[in-house]
Write a structure and sequence with these properties.
The structure is a homodimer of 336-residue chains.
Chain A (H helix, E strand, L loop, with lengths): L7 E17 L1 H4 L9 E2 L10 H19 L9 E6 L5 H6 L7 E3 L6 H14 L5 E8 L1 H8 L15 E2 L2 E8 L6 E7 L14 H20 L8 E4 L3 H14 L8 E3 H4 L12 E2 L1 H17 L5 E9 L3 H5 L6 E10 L1
Parallel strand pairs in A: 1-2, 3-4, 3-5, 6-11, 9-10, 9-12
Antiparallel strand pairs in A: 1-7, 1-8, 5-7, 8-13, 12-13
Helix pairs in contact in A: 6-7
């Protein structure tokens, strides 16, 4: 049975990584991981008439790059799973219009990519698909309009705020064991609400969910932190990263430099507008498909735990004084 | 292999229906199917301070009813899969806060429920879960605020408009073959865009996707229409229903009275505010879990094809003059 705990699956037939496609925005391209992305755009409008259309194109191009690198047409893809932060997942669905692929929209805020990877690996494990695409996107401009104020207002943000990443990441996965990197486990998160109410404190809102999922993963998989070369949370940023580190240490799961965060890795913090770090559906997918999988492919690392984190809020829930629950889903990548 | 065609899965270990929970709004309770719902509410605020909070409660209660009828606590549910129409799926995630269940948010607009059922049945088939909850909600008030104008404006609508259903439906599914009704097949839809641009013509926007998925299902499963006692589309309403019937007839798949639509079934059309019929994430889940599964349980029917249909739009895409793509996912329920 692939279910080895309440939250954790172990894949009998792991999902093999065929190829990835990453398209990064201008600020992300100038960050320390810029060289790891397939396409580095200079203009965040990406030749489109709106940020939302730019985001749809980013996703379409990331999917196209992954398929091209994998020598695979859309007709050879059995299933596409993904999502984005826009209301009604329009980045994902509109980005998919040029392709003819059976498609499943998923949403766990910025944890969308690991939800998609978990479902993709499940579909491959049990023969529901031979080849699956998974991906996620976000765009700073469309997220500011979706969640915050018109950018023209120039609203000041506190240092605990995070910058929504502009970009898209896609991955092509296969049942065929012809590749070196594979997804072996997934741990599905619960909705965790610790009562944080400020939308400027999303790292704090998501850290308890990240802790919960990492703890569940270790208990249920039998791995210890030392079994991983890297444990990367999705987009907690500097503040949330320090919080989850403290929670793990307090729970006698002592962390070291192997615990990192995609939202911290993606930006050069000398840029003032990045605040506490990156967030958004593309943060974890860009960093994972660009940088982290490179570390596995190059032989530097053997096993990697990616724990994407999502803050479950909308402008309506914040306006109605609701708290911000978090959710975190984790997947294990390893080099054979 | 469970994959029997490009879009279609046949479950080797079908998912058995343990129980359902349905909570219907006031207009839906007064409709012809009112007697088939577990709870019929009189006040669409449902004792809450906003429509959005009411929707969260509707979903929470539908989940609770399904668990209670199935003699199952949240600790015994391995996975919950579902979604709603609100931006960032807040109906689903906030409704789940009282429970501790690993959770996957999914979105295909009003086709969300059959996407959730397909993933749930996949997880059960291959042993990723023993017991899964799936569900969806919608609320007329929160959808009007989400997609249209403040209700206080009293904006007039054309007869082709549809009324978003207030309610929530949840279903408890199990691997254990102790029940009489089971899910045997699923057909996953593609994004189908025929260029319809008017948000008042959602039936027309979704009908091509419904046709596409029904045609794919029949070709790939080997079933003919006569193998089903009922083929129910999700929420095409009167106009979309007539369109999909014509498309099927034109494709030499002659339909008869077994082809119906949940958006047509749910309302009494003597009520003027129902326009062309129901829509919304709860339309297909309420009608399926209330009325359609009753027809199987009572022995009147043996096999049922449910094809929930989603219109992929947001206020931003409509404002940016985008067309409205559709998507349709189908599942087969049968009585053993």
């Amino acid at each position: 049975m692939p279910r080895i705990g309440r939250h954790t699956w172990k894949f009998e037939h792991p999902a093999y990584v065929v190829s990835t496609g990453t398209v990064a925005g201008s600020t992300e391209s100038q960050g320390p991981l810029g060289g790891t992305f397939d396409v580095r755009i200079q203009d965040d409008y990406y030749g489109q008439s709106s940020w939302e259309r730019a985001e749809q194109k980013l996703f379409e191009h990331a999917v196209k790059i992954a398929m091209d690198k994998g020598h695979c047409s859309d007709a050879a893809v059995d299933l596409c799973i993904g999502g984005d932060l826009n209301a009604q997942l329009t980045g994902f669905f509109f980005g998919l219009r040029p392709f003819h692929i059976p498609s499943l929209g998923v949403y766990s805020a910025c944890a969308t990519i690991t939800e998609a990877l978990a479902i993709a690996a499940m579909a491959l494990d049990s023969g529901f698909a031979e080849t699956v695409l998974a991906g996620s996107s976000s765009h700073n401009g469309s997220a500011e309009r979706q969640f915050r104020f018109p950018t023209e207002y120039g609203v000041q943000k506190p240092p605990s705020a995070q910058r929504t990443v502009t970009g898209a990441g896609a991955i092509l996965l296969s049942r065929k064991p012809t590749q070196a990197i594979r997804i072996t486990h997934a741990t599905i998160g619960e909705v965790v609400d610790m009562g944080v109410k400020s939308p400027w404190e999303m790292g704090a809102a998501m850290a308890p969910a990240a802790f919960h999922t990492i703890e569940n993963h270790l208990t249920e998989s039998g791995f210890t932190l030392s079994d991983f070369d890297c444990i990367a949370t999705g987009d907690l940023g500097k503040i949330g990263h320090a919080m989850v580190r403290e929670m793990l240490d307090d729970a006698a799961i002592p962390t070291d430099s192997r615990l990192t965060d995609c939202g911290v890795l993606i930006y050069d913090f000398n840029q003032p507008e990045v605040f506490s770090g990156g967030s958004g559906g593309a943060c974890c997918s860009l960093v994972t498909f660009g940088h982290l999988l490179n570390q596995l492919a190059s032989g530097l690392w053997t096993r990697l735990l990616v724990c994407a984190t999502g803050a479950l809020l909308s402008t309506v829930t914040v306006g109605q004084s609701e708290s911000i629950p978090g959710i975190c889903h984790a997947v294990v990548f390893e080099r054979v």
